[in-house]
Amino acid sequence: DAKTTQPPSMDCAEGRAANLPCNHSTISGNEYVYWYRQIHSQGPQYIIHGLKNNETNEMASLIITEDRKSSTLILPHATLRDTAVYYCIVSLSLVIYNQGGKLIFGQGTELSVKP
Amino acid sequence: DVKVTQSSRYLVKRTGEKVFLECVQDMDHENMFWYRQDPGLGLRLIYFSYDVKMKEKGDIPEGYSVSREKKERFSLILESASTNQTSMYLCASSSSWEGSPGEQYFGPGTRLTVT
Questions:
Q1: CB contact under 8 A, A43 and B106
Q2: Does residue A102 carry a pLDDT above 90?
Q3: What is the DSSP letter of B110?
Q4: Could you report the per-residue pLDDT of A45-61, keeping only the tens digit for each?
Q5: SS3 sequence of chain A
Q6: Which of A47, A41, A35 is closest to A103 using CA atoms?
Q7: H helix and E strand count, chain B
Q8: Which pLDDT belongs to residue B1?
Q9: What is the largest CA-CA distance in chain A?
Q10: Strands B10-13 and B110-114: what pairing?
């Protein structure tokens, strides 16, 4: 069962920052927050992940609250190509896949970037 | 960049046929996975493999088998295709190196229709 709650849909203007929230109030101390997205008719794409600290890579930033019960994925300058379903997933490290790390995709947030 | 390729994007087969779906990854990843994705049900894990010739059942292995004879290749076999196996099939791979994030990289998917 998915352990996260995300809004079903969001809109964002092209060129603006897209802030996608995720609630994970039952996260345990050794669980990570992973973000994936899926563009229509394509396979899911890994975006970023974090444990406690905020993280940034070339695609996005991940802000995790101090109590770790929620997080926000930030796409700093959204483009039309960022239109996709975004999934927030809580899991043990996926490196230990056969010992508990598991990708469970919930319903995600459908982000529409509009011109 | 990690590249995961799948043998076909679209496939149409008849009920009772034996179906082979092939997946190849080029990043020397130890772990490989097969999922199916259906509307309203999200991604469901069929099988995964953490080494050559090793396999473990996922959540929905019934009606499927797998083969991993080489590290880079993971095959999904439908012994006798049925209409309820009509779905999008997604292959993924990941590293089991302790220092890696363990994120899974997905292929583009194969949309299988069984008539």
A1: yes
A2: no
A3: E
A4: 999 999 998 999 999 99
A5: CCCCECCCEEEEECCCCEEEEEECCCCCCCCEEEEEEECCCCCCEEEEEECCCCEECCCCEEEECCCCCEEEEEECCCCHHHCEEEEEEEECCHHHHHHCCCCCCCCCEEEEEEC
A6: A35
A7: 0, 11
A8: 66
A9: 44
A10: parallel
Tell me how far apart the alpha carbons of residues A76 and A61 are, in angstroms, rounded to a whole number.
8
Through-space distance between the first and last CA atoms of chain B, rounded to whole angstroms? 37
Say if residues B50 and A97 touch (Cβ distance below 8 Å): yes
For the purposes of burial, counting CB atoms within 10 Å of the CB of B104, is it exposed (0-12), middle (13-18) or buried (19 or more)?
buried
State pLDDT tens for residues A17-51.
Answer: 999 999 999 998 888 899 999 998 889 999 999 99
The pLDDT of residue A35 is 95
Give me the pLDDT at residue A95, please.
62
Q: Which residue of A has its CA nearest to B102?
A: A95
pLDDT for residue B95: 83
Low-confidence ranges of chain B (pLDDT < 50): none
What is the total residue count of chain A? 115
Which one of A103, A104, A109, A110 makes the best mutation probe of the B interface by having the most chain B beta carbons within 10 Å?
Answer: A103
- Answer whether A97 sits within 8 Å of B48, measured CB to CB: yes
Contacts (Cβ under 8 Å, ≥6 apart) of A99: A92
